[in-house]
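Re: weekly structure request thread

Next one in the queue (63 aa):
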Amino acid sequence: MLSDVSNTISHLSMGMTLEPRGIITTGTASGVGMAMKPPRSLTSGDVITAQFKGIGELTYTVS
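Done, posted below.
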């Protein structure tokens, strides 16, 4: 990680109001998939699902 969670929250809260139950998404640095063997990246039709304990799932299909 380039920044830890507490620093990310601190930085975001300087420019916006963080609401209860809000979700902060970060991501992966550019090119990380190219370091894999074989290289991989998300492509159209890939499905990403995040599970949140006690809340449920969030699913996204790459377009």
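The radius of gyration is 15 Å. Residues 5-61 form one domain.
Next request, please.
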